[in-house]
UniProtKB/TrEMBL annotation:
It comes from the Eukaryota. This is Udp-glucuronate:xylan alpha-glucuronosyltransferase 4. GO terms for molecular function: glycosyltransferase activity. The keyword Glycosyltransferase applies. SUPFAM superfamilies: Nucleotide-diphospho-sugar transferases (SSF53448). It comes from Quercus suber. InterPro entries: Glyco_trans_8, GNT1/Glycosyltrans_8, Nucleotide-diphossugar_trans. Keywords: Glycosyltransferase, Manganese, Transferase.
Amino acid sequence: MGSKTSSSTRAKPFIFFLLFLSSSLFFTVLTFRPKPNLINTHGLQHQAKISNGFNLIANEFKGKNVKVGLVNIVGDRIEATYRLLGLSESKTETVKVRFDHVSKDLTWRDFFPERIDEDEKWAPPKCPEILLPRKEDYEDLDVVIARTPCDKVKENKGIRDVFRLQVNLVVANLVVRNGWISPDVNRTVYAVFIGSCEPMVEIFRCDDLVMHQGDHWVYKPELRRLKQKVLMPFGSCQLAPSYAQTGQEVWRNFMSESGQQKHSITLHHHKKAYATVLHSSEAYVCGAIALAQSIIQSNSTKDLVLLADHSISSKSIRGLRAAGWKIKRIRNPFAKKGSYNEWNYSKLRVWQLIEYDKVIFIDADLLVLKNIDKFFVHPQVSAATNNMMIFNSGVMVIEPSLCTFKELLSKSFKLESYNGGEQGFLNEAFTWWHRLPTKLNQLKIFDESNNEKHEIAEDSYTMQYLGLKPWMCYKDYDCNWDKLDHHQFASDSAHKRWWQVFEAMPKYLQPYCGLTKEMDARIRKWRGMARRASLADGHWRIKVEDPRQHHFVDYLRDANSQEVWRNFMSESGQQKHSITLHHHKKAYATVLHSSEAYVCGAIALAQSIIQSNSTKDLVLLADHSISSKSIRGLRAAGWKIKRIKRIRNPFAKKGSYNEWNYSKLRVWQLIEYDKVIFIDADLLVLKNIDKFFVHPQVSAATNNMMIFNSGVMVIEPSLCTFKELLSKSFKLESYNGGEQGFLNEAFTWWHRLPTKLNQLKIFDESNNEKHEIAEDSYTMQYLGLKPWMCYKDYDCNWDKLDHHQFASDSAHKRWWQVFEAMPKYLQPYCGLTKEMDARIRKWRGMARRASLADGHWRIKVEDPRQHHFVDYLRDANS
């Protein structure tokens, strides 16, 4: 017991010593902790609170030495940031990045001047110099950390701080220089910003933001896009180059071709589209139709997408067939209720088109005068200047992104607009932009001192029709001449150019550009005032012959307005801010493969569907045997093109006609659609068949007995169904050696549609001596020799005795009526080749020598195509 007491007594001083030492250490920590005003360390009280985004960096370099470059960090203690990023100081090498700061005398206006010598008549325009660090001084960086200058931030204005621009460009250059090795080989380099304001969203995309916590912003940039940014001029003081100038680099091809997945139905991962928006009124429906036609006539190969709100009737949507998207409107928070600009922030919806990598937005009062596809190569935001530091949002290259869209929505309640509209707002949201030539957005406004005749420049890419729009005037002359205060917007040559596009568009589209009674009354009023004032230009003297003055239209009338349930089916259950109202999208589809022989048939099929007033998408799957020249024609006809790889029929002989006809199975890959009606390319739609989309898979007309005809069938796209069909294609035999026999084995239980939905062009003379087509037929499948493979004058199936069952004058005539109604620029795709002509002449001679009783060989041939042959295989872009 004694020894125990003695030991306890000796331990007491030691315990008091430990307590004293602990207290001293505690006060030491409080005294010498890092100053809180240097780095925001929110959330660092415990390691478990470090976010996944920050853990990503720690995991990326786990156990490795990390090299960090510090930009604009002078005297800061960076340890807290390292802890936040999960970096060990013992394994971190820090390098301070040195660069000469941009002159304080330089302002944003120096980098965004009102005018530059775009044509380089005197000398190439130059930008003020922004010095960047030398590459060789800062190699092998893994992380770049920068303090963002935030002293010039105003809550309701975009930031225009030249030093802030320099810091962001320094970081971007360091990331690209250290990360980019080759188009297919990149190193991971992170960019970290510290500051109370965000980095420049124009350079560092929100899509690349790994984590934002407090004053820390961490990015893992996509180097392809960032590389393009650092190759751009410092501002609009120079035109943005159309290619990467440094070393003639290959990023342009890489952006569109690299990293495609095997077996993907869509080869274009980096899809591009033109887009416009219609909202609140139908006044610009005609303008949008003309815009689409002008793009098509320029031989563009890109998609056309139109965003329309509920003010655009289904009748007008049919006219705007090239695209059919609808969206919910977003209200301009600074506009008065009922004002002209109340809903013009709806343009922000284009950022929701995330199925596209690049979009060129074009206002609906523009006309494309020549192909502008080459401008898709430019980054966001690229546009022509309006004046001084301002870009014109009437034509602009943007990069769709949901997070950008959300940011813009958020900022729309904070940033003020200089003009009260979306253009002013966008100029505050994107203060750093890339200058495109003025002729890309040529405004129809004239200074008489420089251009007395108000002529449009021959090298203009587009024309934006300011003032009174062409379709709101008589065709005979520009009615802006009738208003003295509108003379600056008047131009005979620009007016004439618009009406040339009108004349070239299909006849069935032209009524959408009709006059209303109100428009006609307004024109007559202005014309009368001009006459009474005897305006010197004298346009009021021109005799009006515009036929539209005798046939007025009413934009508000819609034959389908009573069918409320149809709208409900496509619009109910929408998510807030969802761009696509059609959750159950439907499309017509066809396939072209192995030969261009059916290109004309597919063009006629598309035109017949459009002429039937269908509102559905048209999708054509084409393999690489279809040339880019033919793709342009198919695109102009109304098809959305998806490139595919052919699928071989495993039971077909090599080189046989049915070797690749299992390619039709690709339609099950169209999973962006709920229902698809597949139609063979040798069919014609004679009247609207949209109502058949309501049927389930597989619905088709009968061929005979238990067999359905796969020439027209309703299917429901599904990737698992597609995989199952591929698997079964090696097991199930086909009664006819083709895909129809196989599909009848794969889908033994199917749903019968009326025969007239797939009316075969085959006749039994005992029942139909004249071979007339039935008036109630929905479609006609042209068996035997196809109409475009014969002379226009008569069905050449009559010239072959064994083809008489396929011959029909009325069916032949009906096909050529569709041909005559299609735009003139599509008709050459249905030309004759020398081989086709020789074959027809051979059969015609044989019929003449045999004196076939039907006597068609006696008909005089006047088909003009016999004098101008085409070559399907020739392609300027091959």
